[in-house]
Amino acid sequence: MEFFERFALPHPDPMIYASMVAIVVVSIAIVAGLTYFKKWGYLWNEWLTTTDHKRIGIMYLISALLMLFRGGADAVMMRIQLSSPEMEFLNAQHYNEVFTTHGVVMIFFMAMPFVIGLMNYIVPLQIGARDVAFPRLNALSFWMFFAGAMLFNISFVVGGSPDAGWTNYFPLAGNEFSPTVGVNYYMWALQISGLGTLMTGINFLVTIFKMRAPGMKLMKMPMFTWSALITNVIIIFAFPVLTVALLMGTLDRQFGTALFTTGSGGMDMYWANLFWVWGHPEVYILILPAFGIYSEIISTFSQRNLYGYKSMVGSMVLISLLSFFVWVHHFFTMGQGALTNSIFSITTMAIAIPTGIKIFNWLLTMWKGKIRFTVPMLYSVAFIPLFTVGGVTGVMLAMASADYQYHNTMFLVAHFHNTIIPGVVYAMLAGLTYWWPKMFGFKLNERIGKWAFWFNVIGFVLAFFPMYLTGLDGQARRMYTYSESTGFGPMNMIAFVGAGLFAIAFILIAYNVFYSFKHSPRNIGDDPWNGRSLEWATHNPVPAYNFAIEPEVESSQAFWDHKQKKHNLFKGKISKIHMPNNSGIPIIMAGILFVFGFSFVFSIWPAVIIAAVAFFACMIYSSFENDQGRYISEQEIKETEAKFGGDSK
Amino acid sequence: MKAKWAFLTLVFTIFTVLTGCEPLLVLDPKGPQAETTSNVIWISIISMSFIVITVLVLLVIILSKYRASKQPADYEPPHIEGHPVVEGTIIGIPILIVIFLSVVSVISSYQVESTPAGYEDEEPLVIYASSSNWKWHFSYPEQDIETVNYVFFPANRSIQFKLYSYGPITSFWIPQLAGQKYAMGDMVTKINLAADAPGEFMGRNANFSGEGFAENTFNATALSQEDFDKWVEDIKKTEDPITEEKFNELLQPGHLGQLSFTGTHLDFSPAPEGEHAGHQHGDSSDKNHSEHEQNNKDKSSK
C-alpha cells in the first residue's frame, strides 16, 4: 500500500473527487461508445496514426477547444471566488492550484495548439504543398503535445496540481516551499509538449523554405504563411531555453542540485531570467500568427489587397528580433538598477512601433474597401480597438518607474488578457470560422456566431476593464480573497458578470458547431468567402492530396489574380501523387513518453528506465523501417475530382 | 451599430463613475516617489489616449463609409500597394511618441531609484524589512528595535528600506509612498521613500508566495518626529528583547499579529549584504564590496 500512498491528493476537496468520478465516467462512456459502434479501427486508421497535416491540424484544434473549456472553468472558478469580499468558495490552496493550471493550460495547451493547429491545416495549402516536410515528425509533435497536456491534466486527481503560478518562480517552486509532486508535473508536462513544439518549429521552417509552389517567392507568400514562418523561427530560438530551464528545475527538485536555490551558490533570479527569455518570445509566438490571420480576413472581407505588404513583413521581422531583448520588463522590480531598467524600458516600447504600423495597415486595408461584416470580420474589427487598448497599456507597463506600481497587480492581469484575448483568442475564433468550410465543407451559422461574438466582446470588456482600476487601487494579482474595506468588491462583481457572459459566448460557439453540423447547407462551393490565397483554389473539404495539380503562382494573392486577372494556376495535368504512409510509431512513442513523464513525476525509477529504453527502441526501429510512402493513382484522383463537381482544373 | 454605441456608452459611464468615486490608491500619492510614478502614469495615459482615440475615430469612419451595404453592387475596390508619405506618417508619429515616453521613462527610473526629491541633503533612516512566510519583520539598527507586521517611521524624513527574504521572492509595496521592489534570499534590495505628512498606509507583499499570500500585509504609519521618538522609547521600556530562539519561532510559516521587540535579529541573523550575500560578484570583504558598488554607480552615471 505504501507504493500507492504517493498518488494520494495532498489537499483533497469534494469538488476534486466529483471531477475524478466525472473523468472515470466519461472515459468509460467513450471506450464503450467506440466499442459499441465498432469505431476503433476507424479511429486508429484514420486519425490516431495519420500523418496528414489536415487531420493533425484538426486534432490540434479539438484539443485546443477542450483545453479552452478546462482553462475557462478555472477562470470562472476564480471569478466566483473573487466576486465579493471574503468569499468562501475556494480556499487559498485550491485557488492557487486553479490559477496556476489556468495559466499553464491556456498558454501551453490552448493557445499553442490552436495556433499550431491552424498553421498545420492552412500553411501547406497556402503554399501549394501536399503536406509538411516531415509528416511523421509532425504526428510525433502532435502526440507529444497531447501526452504533455494529458499528463498535466491528470495532476489534479493524481498527486495534486502545481500551485506555484504558471511562472513557477523559484524558490517558491523548490522542494522547500512546494513539497508535493505538483511542480514535477509542471516540469514534465511542459518538457514533453515543449519538445514537440520545438520539432514543429523545425518542421514548418523546412516546409515553408523548401516546399512552396513554383513561382511563390518569399515576398509572394500569403501573410499568414509569413507570420507562421517568423513564428517558427522564434520557436526554434526560444524553446531550447525552456527545455534547459525545465531540466534545471527537475535537477533541483528531484536530484538535489541547488541551481535556483538561494545559498549553496544557486540563484533564485536565474529561473526568472531563463523563464522570461523564453516567455517573452512566447508571447510573440502566439500573437504573430494571429496577426497573420487578421491580415487574411481583413483583406478578404474588405475585398482589397493587404495594404503595405512589405511593411507588414518588415514589422513582423522587427518584432521577432526585439522580442528577444525585452525579457527584463517582466521584473523591473528585481533591483537591477535604473540603467538596466531604462534600456529594457526603451526596447519594450520600441515594439509598439512595428505593432502600430500593423494596426494602421489594417485600417488602410479597409479604407476604400467593400466591407462585409461576417463573423470572422466582426472579430477582426473588434480586435483593432481592443488590442490597441491592450497595446497602449503595454506601453504604460513598459515605463519602468510606473511599472513599480503596476507590477504584480490586476492592472497587469488586465493588460495581458487584453492583448491575448482580442489578440490571440479572437484571431483563433475568427480563423476557425473563416477556414471552417475549408475543413468540413460547410459554414458555421452566422446568426449564432454573431450572438456569440457580442457576448464575447461585452463579456470581455466587463470582465477585464475593471481590473485596470482595481490594480491601480492596490489589488495584487493571485490574492484568493480580500476584505470589504479594500473597496475592490463592486469592480470584481462586474468582472464576475463579464466572466459569465464570456462563458455563455463559448457555450454558444460550441452549440454553433453542433447546430451547423446538423443544419448548414453543404453546397457552398470551393470559394464561399470570395478568398484571395491559394487554400481557396482547392475543394471544400480538402481532398487528401490537397491539389490535384501542383499550382504555379505569380503574385502574393494567387487565387484572387487567378479569378480577376485570369492567371492560370494549374498548368500541368493530373498524374499520380506520392503521399506519406500512416504510422503508429508517433502515438506509441508519445504514449511511452507519457509513462516516462508520469513515472518521473513520482520518481518511480524502474518505470522511467523501461520507458526510456522503449522510447529509444522506437527511434531505432523507425530508423531502420523501410517506408517509401504510397502513391495515389491517376484514376483515383480523377474520381475524387469528379465527385467535387467535375470541374477538375 | 446601435448595440456598439450602447456598449461604448456603458464602458465610458462605468469608467467615469468609478474613477470619480474615490481616488485610486496609486494615483493618490502621499510622498515624492509615489508622486513621480503617479505623474508618469498620467503622462502615459494622456499620450496613449491620443493613440486610442485616433484609432477609434479612424475605425468608425472607415467602417461606416466603406461597408458593403452602402456601396453600389458593382463597386470594385482598388488595388493600392502603399504610399511612402502615408507609411512614413504611421511610422513617424509612433516613433515620436515612443521617444518622448522613453525620455520620461529613463528620467523617472533614475528618480525612483534615488533619494526622494527634497530630501537629498539628509541621511536616510535605514530600516531593514525582511519577509518570511507570511510576515514582514522590520529591524531598526539605529534605534535597536524590531517589529513584526507593522512599521512606524517619521514623516518628512527620507527612509531607506533594505529588503530581503527568508523564503520565496516577495515584493515590498506601499502604493501611496512608492512602487514595489523584490525581497530575495541572497541579496539586499533597496527602496528609498518619504512620506510628506503623518498618516497610515496600506503595505503588502505583492508577489505570490504561497498559501498565506493574500494576508501577507502590514501597516505602514508615518508619525511626527516626536511621536516616533516617543514610540521608540516606549518599545525600549516595555518590550522583551528578541532572541535567536524567539526569532526562529517567528520564521515558522503562518500568520502573526503585530509584535514589537528590543534589539534586532541582524545581530545573529545578518542581512544578505556585504560578506553575507548569497552570491558575490568578486571579493567578499566589506571594503571591496562597497568599492564594487561604487564602481557600479560610476558606470551607471556615465
Provide keyphrases for this structure:
heterodimer, A: 649 residues, mainly alpha, Cytochrome C Oxidase, Chain A, two-stranded antiparallel sheet, 2 strands, 1% strand, B: 302 residues, alpha+beta, Immunoglobulin-like, six-stranded mixed beta sheet, five-stranded mixed beta sheet, 11 strands, 40% helix, disordered C terminus
Summarize this structure briefly.
By secondary structure, chain A is mostly helical. Chain A has helices spanning 2-5, 14-36, 40-48, 53-82, 92-126, 135-154, 182-210, 223-254, 268-302, 309-322, 338-350, 352-366, 375-398, 400-406, 410-440, 446-472, 489-519, 558-564, 585-601, 605-624, 634-643; strands at residues 577-579, 630-632. The mean pLDDT of chain A is 94.
Question: What does this molecule look like?
Answer:
The complex is a heterodimer of chains A (649) and B (302). By secondary structure, chain A is mostly helical. Chain A has a domain at 1-285: Up-down Bundle (Cytochrome C Oxidase, Chain A). Chain A is built from 21 helices and 2 strands. In chain A, strands 1-2 form a two-stranded antiparallel ribbon. Chain B has 302 residues and is α+β, with helices and mostly antiparallel strands. Chain B folds into 2 domains: 14-68 and 81-113; 125-293, Cupredoxins -  blue copper proteins (Immunoglobulin-like). In chain B, the strands form 2 sheets. Chain B has a 6-stranded mixed beta sheet. A 5-stranded mixed beta sheet of chain B has the order 4-10-9-6-7. In chain B, a hairpin with a 3-residue loop joins strand 6 and strand 7. The longest helix of chain B has 34 residues, at 32-65. Chain B starts with a helix and ends with a helix. Mean pLDDT of chain B is 87; it is low at 282-302. The chains are: A mainly alpha (649), B alpha+beta (302). At the A-B interface, helix 5, helix 9, helix 10, helix 11 and helix 12 of A face helix 1, helix 2, helix 3, strand 7 and strand 9 of B.
